Amino acid sequence: MSQLRVGSRLRLWPKDTYAKYGIVREINANYILVELTEKDPRDHCRHQVGDIIKLPSRGLQVLNEKEFKERYC
To answer: Which domain of life does this protein belong to (predicted)?
Structure first.
């Protein structure tokens, strides 16, 4: 998680069918808080733009775009 900083823009759940993006609002040892800023209009997930999503730090994987493409594309 060393790449992650408050204010970073990121893609959430990058392997989902529909893209969702957010801004990191808080980072601590147990979780990060991300504000959902954009999602595909076809995505009917429970989260809406403006929601604050709490993600546990444990098991969280942060990849830059190059790492993601090398691993999953």
So the answer is: Bacteria
User: Which residue has tokens 């775009």?
Assistant: 65
Q: Where are the domains of the chain?
A: 9-72
Does the model's pTM come out above 0.85?
no
Tokens representing 11? 């893609």
Half-sphere exposure of 4 (CA within 13 A, CB side): 22
Q: How confident is the model at residue 26 (pLDDT cuts 50, 70, 90)?
A: very high
Q: Which two tokens stand for residue 34?
A: 């991300």
Q: Which two tokens stand for residue 67?
A: 């790492």
Query: Does residue 67 register a pLDDT over 80?
Result: yes
Look at the block and give the residue holding tokens 């979780």. 31
